[in-house]
Amino acid sequence: MPELPEVERAKRRLEKLAVGTTISKVDISEDPIVFSSVAETSFITNFRGTASTAYRVPRAKSEDDGVWPPKYMKMVITFTNSDESVAGEWAFSDPRRLGRIKLVEAEDADAMEPLSLLGADPLLDMPSVEVLAEALEKRHAPIKAVLLDQNGPLCGIGNWMVDEILFQSRLHPAHPSSALSSTEVQTLHDNIRDVVVTATDVDAEASLFPKHWLFSSRWNKGKKDNNFTLPSGEVVPITYITVGGRTSAVIASVQKLPSGYGGKQATKRAATAAKGKRKAKEEDEDEDDEGEEVEGLTSPHFKKPRTAVKEETSPYFNKTTKLEVDDEKLSTTSKTTRASRSSKSRASR
Known about the structure:
Layout: H1 4-18, E1 22-28, H2 40-47, E2 73-80, E3 86-93, H3 129-137, H4 143-148, H5 159-168, H6 182-201, E4 227-229, E5 235-237, E6 239-243, E7 246-250, H7 263-289, H8 327-348
Helix pairs in contact: 1-6, 5-6
């Protein structure tokens, strides 16, 4: 999943290609999942012949970079110059179908959902230390979970970025947000900006990231060389734990939980949180089992009403197999089996 530096790189490339040109052609590959809230034909009708503007788009790699349009293409837009010469083409490729293409008819797209639901952009609109501190003070969840919440204080920061930010800030991922000191919040604020700006300045090119970053070593889970060299030269192991539902790379000697937030207390809090999630999931499943659209229950990102999935049979089987048990026969069989085993045991002795 692209994070803010990758998205910013795609945005800059699209901006360089598109701004000042006109959209002359739109080719669509039908996909009701990617085009979640607008018909493909409506999208084409609204876009063709309009002046283009830049917008943030995810970057998707294709195994066949020389093939055009790329594999898993969902949309290709052709841009033309004022003299009607082709300025270039841009394609949206999404093999995992996790992206969404929306048509927002508004002068201020940022004021429309889902963009209006997102947290502050740490590159373009980083909140002050005071604003960030106030937001974190209201959240009792682990700091990693809060930073990963795209509708929380910030957006655009994903798993590897949060791990890097917390390592540079010497904070444990499970550290409760509301328990951060003013000094820790200041350090966290500084490192959020530093990691985001540094990564975007090199166009998200990982080989150009600073050598003292945890990034280059955090992917070694399960490998023999699972160590990291600190700036001091000390070689330390990388520990992997799950926080906020995501795998977290931690340097235990650097990132320590404060006294009172580890051991049994942390386990108890985690168990309570898990119990709450299970309860919410059960309630959610109960709602889905009703088999009808739930009024007012929509996706926070795409405002798509949730409808229960109809019960369907497996495509590999044409009928449902039921196991019917006759209690009387089962009891008789059980007694016969025990008697047979007993006889064999006596014969053996």
